[in-house]
Known about the structure:
This protein has 187 residues and is of the alpha+beta class.
Amino acid sequence: xxxxxxxxxxxxxxxxxxxxxLAACGNGVGSPGSAQIDARVxxxxxxxxxxxxxxxxxxxRASGVLIMPLITEAGLIYGGGYGRGALRVGGVTVxxxxxxxxxxxxxIGAQQYAHALFFMTEGALGQFRRSPGWAVGAxxxxxxxxxxxxxxxxxxEMEPVIALVFGQQGFIAGATLAGVKYNRIIP
Length: 187
């Protein structure tokens, strides 16, 4: 006896399980808006500055910093990810952004991580803010958390954007920002 005509019980359980899993990740979807995003960004920024001391100086030299407190990714051949965060200029939130990602390939699992984009030039920050949707490109330098304390003035003056991925949890190998698209949102 089938309750769902044309829709198998296995497909229903799979869809329900995937939806429940992503909802449980707590990435801010359906949250009360800017107050919750700001609270998460504040907490993530405190974690970043306290655990990787060089990042505070890096943020002070940057024209702006985009903090994405929680990106959630999941995949089984096809995958995707989503998160929300805030762009801060001079330590003040000026805009909110979402980050989305779609992937295809040999993958299975899920992970969560945080990341920060340090816009080291006014030009890079302006290009980011003017674009209808900005994707991480070749002009981004990736830094590891260990390098966060040693990114010198000479390095940062030559790089328009520095990306730092940290706080990974889960079981997809490697967190990267390739293919992530950022869009301004109104929470």
